[in-house]
Amino acid sequence: MAISKILLYYRFTPITDPTAVMLWQRTLCESLGLTGRILISRHGINGTVGGELPSVKRYIRATRAYPGFRDMEFKFSEGSAADFPRLSVKVREELVAFGVPGDIDVDDDGVVGGGVHLKPEEVNELVDTRGDEVVFFDGRNAMEAGIGRFRDAVVPDVETTHDFIDEIESGKYDDLKDRPVVTYCTGGVRCEVLSALLRKRGFREVYQIDGGIVRYGETYGNDGLWEGSLYVFDRRMHMEFGDATDHNFVQIGRCIHCTEGTNTYRNCANGQCRRQVLICDGCAGTEAGSYCTGCRSTVSVDA
Ligand SMILES: [Zn+2]
Ligand SMILES: [Zn+2]
């Protein structure tokens, strides 16, 4: 059996007819037997597809034939196409759902007015030269930041990407407007937009990390400015960039019941609750410990 591969990619580029691109991409994936999820908007494309290696390679060649996608970077990821049982190719108003499609302009070079791209080494250089003045600003939701983040990062109080605009405009972060702000997210796509939105709102010196946390973590493992685990949106739930038992590994996630270190989000045992919470192995093994704190107080269980 052929090796199965997962491909991650995005590109911000003007697309005049997103529906035509969507139909072309859907047909292309179907003909190659690829599964996964692709979003197209008038601002570009963002996709995760999986399939057998020769098909994936053919997909890259065909997709790069579209002029706007010629320079798109494709990243191979661990995992297999079995993680994506279906194919979904859709047109959306925004590639990243900040809820402000009219606020973003895109040209052939990408998002207009975005933050300066830094390679992982340049992130460390910035911190070396500017010291504590530098602020890391988490571009992800609170749940993702709950198990890993950059050292001393500002973690906005957001449940979804949609909450960012209100949070930024609340005034809470106005004291950061004159400091060097480094935005970061999993693979970089959210920060392409977030960094531009911050600059539009008066943040004067904004940076973003090339390839996001993934590339930074691959470069520095446990020896850089990243601490803890990376939340990932597949069955693995989280990943580490070095040995999690190594003395350099900083455990960020804490069990909601006993504060024991853990990286594991679990579904609350109440089927109606749908909350995912950090619960350590020990607590998860008890009936009371298998609920979120809210549900635990309402169910009668033998402790
Ligand atoms: Zn616990
Ligand atoms: Zn619950």
Compact summary:
The protein is of the alpha/beta class and 303 residues long.
Shape: globular
Main sheet properties: 5 strands, mixed
Oligomer: single chain
Mean pLDDT: 93
For the biggest β-sheet, the strand order reads: 4-1-3-2-5
Bound molecules: zinc ion
CA distance, first residue to last residue: 49 Å
Pick out the low-confidence regions: none
Radius of gyration of CA atoms, rounded to a whole number: 21 Å
Q: Which sequence of SSEs, written as H and E, runs from N to C?
A: EHEEHEEEEEHEHEHEHEHEEEEEHH
* Strand portion: 15-25%
| Helix count, DSSP H or I runs of 4 or more residues | 9
- Briefly note the structural class of the backbone: alpha/beta
Tell me the helix content. Answer: 25-40%
The count of β-strands is 17
Summarize the structure in words.
Residues 130-225 form the Rhodanese domain. It is an enzyme of class 1 (oxidoreductase). The N and C termini lie far apart (49 Å). It is globular and about 55 Å long. The strands form 6 sheets. Strands 4-1-3-2-5 form a 5-stranded mixed sheet. It has a 4-stranded parallel sheet with strand order 8-12-11-9. The protein has helices at residues 18-32, 53-64, 120-130, 142-145, 164-169, 189-200, 212-220, 281-284, 293-296, and strands at residues 4-12, 35-41, 44-52, 74-77, 87-91, 106-107, 110-111, 116-118, 135-138, 148-150, 180-184, 205-209, 226-228, 230-231, 238-239, 265-267, 276-278. The protein has 9 helices and 17 strands. The mean pLDDT is 93. It has 303 residues and is α/β, with parallel strands linked by helices. Helix 6 links the parallel strand 11 (180-184) and strand 12.
